[in-house]
Amino acid sequence: MRSKILILIVISILIILIFSSCKKNEDDIYISILKYGLKNPGFTMQDLIEKFPDHAEAINMELGRRNIFVYSEDSFAKGGYKNAKYYVSFNDRFLLMEHEQLIEARNSSRKAMYIATFSIFLNIIILIFKKCNKTQSNTPIRKRKQEAINRKSKEIKKQATD
To answer: Which of 64, 95, 139, 159 has its CA 20 to 30 A from that of 5?
Structure first.
């Protein structure tokens, strides 16, 4: 029976390790660009393209449409949107904060799931262990208790007759 308990412990540990080793989602390019803009205020479109060369077309399109970031009017007047200095807007900051809160909530729920899974397996193991111990030692203990009760009752009867 102890080997079964050991097997259950190993299986539960493996399940927890499998859950914890799940690949975490990498940031979307939009989120990565927002984080870059937050860390590097006053960047140009060329800076973004150098940092994210695979997404140059999307960056060009988004900055041209003014979907993300705000730009400095002075730098825009000098060289257009390609040479303007860009900054993270309030809306972009709130979107980034919401994304970070969502990631934090996911991580918390994942952690809670691991703890709950571990607790369930631990309870199953304890239940099996108790069941094994009860069946193995239950009969001799009952016999010993019954024998002790019989001896005491005989002693009491002897004392009563004496």
So the answer is: 139
Kindly list the domain boundaries of the chain, sorted by start residue.
2-41+88-161
Q: Considering the entire predicted model, what is its pTM?
A: 0.55
Token output for 53: 């060369």
Per-residue pLDDT reduced to its tens digit, 39-58: 988 888 888 888 888 888 88
> C-alpha angle with apex 122: 116 to 125, nearest 5 degrees?
145
DSSP states of 104-117: HHHHHHHHHHHHHH
- Judge contact between 5 and 125, C-beta under 8 A: yes
Reduce the DSSP state of residue 26 to 3 states and report it: coil
Residue 38 makes CB contacts below 8 A (sequence gap 6+) with 88, 93, 96
Q: What are the tokens at 13?
A: 């540990």
Note whether 85 and 43 are within 8 A (CB).
Answer: yes
